[in-house]
Amino acid sequence: MIDVYKDKNGVEYSNESILLGILHHSKFESKEASLIKELTATDLDPGLFKRNAIGWDIKAACNWIHKHSGSSTQHACATYVRSAIDVGFKTNPNGSNSYTANHGFYIDGGKQIKGRPTWAWKYISYLPTIGFEFLEKVSRTGVSSFNAEPGDIAVYQKAGNPNVPGHICMWTGERWTSDFKQNNMIVYNRTQEAYIFRFKYVYNS
Prior knowledge:
endopeptidase fold (from Nostoc punctiforme), 5-stranded antiparallel β-sheet, alpha+beta
């Protein structure tokens, strides 16, 4: 049984999330500087995350992104993935109760920015602050052997061009999906690796 506590804003925390959040917080803060450098210099440790939510409905998130994604890119991968994340938290992506608009932070130009980022690659620093665990970096050649689970999220930059949004996608159990149904996890020809994240607590419904 997970004990649940609410803060003054009504945000729910499990007893384990509070303890682990404290333990991991200082470690995460110490890594922030590396997150604003080139992605090749990013030094995230496996298992690095802060748990500030007790559950995420994987089926709802995967079903939403599968239903709404198209057959070709609309250049809106971050919008679709964060909308799926919101649906999993049972909040309206565009509403005042949007989970991703009101929780977490990302690093931009050395500054800590509250709420969700616009550019896809900045989700590397954002996802750990809303409960997603960094698992590992998966290479282009290692994608086929990586044991993805529904709800896993892959994030990466476009090699040789750091001044573009990058890409983010979610594994639905059938394929990697963003604003379109992808044939591969890594859609850029020259990009060699992706950062993989997984949420810790999920609903079983």
